[in-house]
Structures are given as C-alpha cells and as structure tokens.
Amino acid sequence: MVFALVAILIVAVLIWLAIISLPFFRVHEVKVLPSEHLSQNVIAEAAKIPDNISMFTVNADEIEKNLAGNPWVESVEINKNFPSTIEIAIQERSIGAIVVARGGSEAWYMGKDGTWIEPIPFFINPQSVSETSTPLQDALANNEEEGAEGESKEGSEKDGEQDEESSETSKSSNIPGVSLETSAQAEITQQNSISGQAAKRAQDEGLIYIYNIDPGLTPEAGKQVSDSGLASALKYIEHFSSNLSSHMTYMVAPNKSSITMMLDNGVQVALGDPGDTESIKLKETVITNLLAQHSGEVTYINVRVPNQPAWRGLSQNNEESSK
To answer: Is 70 exceeded by the pLDDT of residue 79?
Structure first.
C-alpha cells in the first residue's frame, strides 16, 4: 500500500514537471496597462520576470515586491492569463504637493502619504542666480526679529496693549507676517529660479506648492518625510475638504507651528500646528465662515487657535478677533 502511494506521488510529480516545462505554458508576453508617469517598458523591466519561466512558477509576490521599489508605485495587480500572458496593472501614488527642498535648490513630487517620489528637473542659468537671500527669507528673518522685540516688552504692558503693538509692528508675531504675500510672490515669480518654476509647474498641474521648509532636509526617493513642518502641511492637505483645497495655491512650512497658506483670492491664512483631525476641521469651518461673512474684504486670517480666530480686512490696520 505504501509503495503504491509513493509510486502515485512520483508519477504525479513527473507529470507536473512535464507540464511546467512545456513551451506552451512559458511566459511569452507581459502586458502592462498604461501608467501616467511610468512607461510600459520601465514597468516591464522593473518586474524582473525571468525569461522562459513557466506560467505555473511565476511568483506574483516577487513581481509586486520588485515593482514596489519604484516610488511612483502605490499598489500592483498581477493577473495570469493562460496559457502564456502576464498582465500587470499599476496604481500610482497620488501626488500631494510639489515641494521645494535643499534650501531652494531642488523641487520634488511629494505623495499624499508623505513619500518623496522624485525630483523635478529644471534648468537654471547660474549666471543670473543671486547668492543673496531671497525675499521670503528676508521677510521671515524680519518677523523673527520683530517677534523677539515684542517678547522683550512683556511685564510692563497689559496683554491687550502688547497684542496691539505686535500687530502694528509685525502684524503677526511668530508667523510670516503680512509681508509674506508680497515676498512670496516675488520669490515664486522669479522665472530663473527653482521656486518660480516649481510654482508654475504646481499651478499647471493643479497641485499645492510647499516651500520654505527646513533647508537641512535631504529628500530620498521612496522614503517617508520626517520633517515636522512638512508633515504638518501635508496633514492639512489630507484633511481639508476638496472645496478648500481647490483654492489653495501654496503653503509655507518652516516648522509645525508656523504653517501658513495662501488662497487663490489673495487671502493669507496662518494655520499653525494642525493638531488632530477635529482641530483641522474646526479651522476650516472658521476660515470658511470668515470668508463668507466678510466676502471681498478679508486679507488675512489667523486660526492658530481656532476658538480665538483673528482676521484683517482692507480697511483695517490691526487684527480683530472674531466673535
């Protein structure tokens, strides 16, 4: 009885080996469905399917692992269409923003999930690039100095007086102040700069543009972002409604507490630390309500503390708290 079972097993193995070795069942074609940023040849080569391999021994998990090494690839679907065709469908990683990194010397596609995807090549004429600081860097430096001056006056003045003086000097201590709109526009409209070309690319592709992040960041394709400022900006992008996101043009993210965004109507919004999802939703509600209540008048909104928002209008010199 035992010998009979062994004999049957041996025969089954031999039949199996004979079947998988038949040329009829070898992979003769790899079909790759179209992908926006990856060519069919790139995907097919990255799959690393061995030549003359049998359809029965193709390892779909291994193919998926090979393709996952490309930062554009979020997920993979692999189908075996017998007798000899492998079909591969790629789900690309969604782009969350275009980010200017390395102190303004590189622009990258950033996934919504916080993955560095790939750098965007731009040509910059080195002869026309100034080595001096950019307008935005100057504005941020000025705000830091003004904020420090405001802090030194504590103790002898009342809180209300201190807030009024801070508004009159920097008009928003510890955040990029009112000069952000002008300085940012000056920087991102420089045609012969990474910032300017990245801003144009973001506008053309309907993406959010994030810059003024930590200059010490070292992007690496396929790696998750580790910077708190950039991660906080992406968190806002993830949780804001599509209605608000569609009106965002760019964000400044030097750190998690100083996130600022510019809307397409020219309104600057100081967002601050995103906190949890509920806090983000509350901030959006406050922003939306203020824009609706003061349509055409608002130029600046501060929702760092969403329960105590402030706004500035065309006819105002100082910030006013919303009631």
So the answer is: yes
pLDDT at 14: 67
CA–CA dist 273, 304 (Å, integer): 7
* Beta bridge mates, 109: 98, 118
Neighbours of 234 (CB within 10 A): 25
Task: Report which residue type is found at 174.
Answer: N
Query: What is the average pLDDT value for the chain, to the nearest integer?
Result: 79
CB 312 within 8 A of CB 320: yes
| Strand partners for 251 | 210, 261
Name the β-bridge partners of 97.
110, 208
AA letter at 74 = E
Q: Is the CB of residue 129 less than 8 Å from the CB of residue 240?
A: no
